[in-house]
Amino acid sequence: SGTADLSEAQPAATVPKADGAPKRGARYFMMNSNNQANVDASKQRGVWSTPQRNVSRLKAAFNRSEEVYLIFSVSESGMFHGYARMTSTFRNQPTQWTGPKGPVTFESVFDLDWLNQCVHPRIQSLSPLCLAMTMVVYVSRLR
Hints:
The protein has 143 residues and is an alpha+beta fold. It contains 3 helices and 10 strands. The protein has helices spanning 36-45, 52-64, 128-142, and strands at 2-9, 14-16, 22-33, 47-49, 65-74, 79-86, 95-99, 102-106, 109-116, 120-121. Strands 1, 2, 3, 4, 5, 6, 9 and 10 form an 8-stranded mixed β-sheet that branches. The protein has a two-stranded antiparallel sheet with strand order 7-8. A hairpin with a 4-residue loop joins strand 5 (65-74) and strand 6 (79-86).
């Protein structure tokens, strides 16, 4: 599982949708996994599970934005572990995976598309907001 930090960047411009409701172009979230195995499984399966406390924020971003990007880190690794685009809202039912320690049930699961799976060094001296902004510029340049 991962957590969405308070550090996120939002573009100022809005993009009108066909239904007339203005929607933000993109939202960016820093996701911090407590272990590497979760990130590896996500890269293989194209899904992510997050604690319930993050669901409303991510669901709102997905419903109100053209795109939602998740920038991943693993706790205490000092590295970024890639980034992905959220491609679905949360599933209505739990998902079960069989891992090395047997079956595990995950709730709050959604689909994503990994756009970059490379590990990048993280600059430790920057604040979380500055780190998020740095990755936003990096992600924007790669698109």
